[in-house]
Amino acid sequence: MTVYRARVMDTPDDPFAGGALRASDDEGIVVDGGVITARGPFEAIRAEHPGAAVVDLRDGVLIPGLVDTHVHYPQVRAIGALGMPLLEWLERCALPEECKLAAPDYARAVAAEFCHGLVSAGTTTALVFGSHFATAVDALFTESARLGLRVTSGLVVSDRELPDDLLTTPERAYDEAVGLAERWHGTGRNRYAVTPRFSLSASEPVLDACAAVLDATPGALFTSHVNENLAEVDVVASLFPDCTDYVDTYDRRGLLKARAVLAHNVHPTDAELAVLADRRTAVAHCPSSNSALGSGLFPLGRHLAAGVPVALGSDVGAGTGFSIFKEGLQAYFMQRLLHDDGHPLSPTQLLWLATRAGALALGLDDEVGDLSVGKQFDAVCLRPPAGTALNVGLRHCASDEEALGKVFALGSDADVADVWIGGWQLLSGGFVRAPLR
Ligand SMILES: [Zn+2]
After folding, report:
1. Segments in the chain below pLDDT 70
2. What percent of the chain clears pLDDT 90, i.e. is strictly above it?
3. What phi, psi does 37 have (nearest 5°)?
């Protein structure tokens, strides 16, 4: 049993529905067997647990582990290619890199870099867009299991429009996905996600195969892309003349019956938002990627008004790195620039989007997303280096909300000092404790 003594902030209650930031300057959090068993003012907690070891984290800020709801594992080495819209960026940058993961050694190296990137950014839970190669997905699950990360991922499937090396058949898509799910769904903290790349590259038979994998894998998630870019939306409409819209390409096959997360949705119709709300399908908002590719300004206000769950994703390849703080800040910027459909974001709402909203989207809200009693101790201690603007700001802010605003405005991987997942400290002083290959 350990008592963590810290300045703590989390968001157990939805701040878009009136919930407030929960913050304490001197909180005691009792962790036993990886689970939070009690919390409260430190002195009271200390008196109730006199024999417990105390870890003093008051030189930092303790928040829940961050949740990334859309991040591409094979694109780590493709981050930072600026200047292209989506379809050109895929052709020239992302897809050639993704082809390289056919080589198992290459995939293992990328998997190690990817998981290291997540941990170093304070991300403890992620819905990961996998690879088109089953051996590469095995490499990801192997590495995430080794580190203990909460990863939900799967085989990415496509049968048209992409380089030949990335194409499959409906039969192979089914067989390989079911094999991966049998090996990894529920193994450690891994779970399986059925993952057609997007309707543009997945024919109706491949989407049907995806539906069959979902049926064969109880508890599996579904994830893909939707309405990212106007040119993409036009192509999808031409490929699916019988569908009412892009969302319908997934929905009419029952793919949104499972817990589903669709990335981007920058250009939805009102009818699509109504369907997503009805199915409780969450949208992974990836603001850095939307900005870098010029995809558009995400209509958060329309999503909220329609009742569509929204969380944050880094996207990684088309984004600008792993940091969910940066995604929160970029989301804030974009809503400031979007006058009609925008929604001004408070620091508390940014923390919600970065933590508990993601846990809800992934169906892990009973386990992670905040630091309440009964939850797993997935936590990040931010300890900005002395003299940095964040260090100065945190020492001189007037309120917890102001401090949290500075975390999102100024925070980066360099400030993520310690990370715990299920009570196991995976990052200590900025260094990953499990050995990298
Ligand atoms: Zn993506």
Report:
1. 434-437
2. 92
3. -105, -15
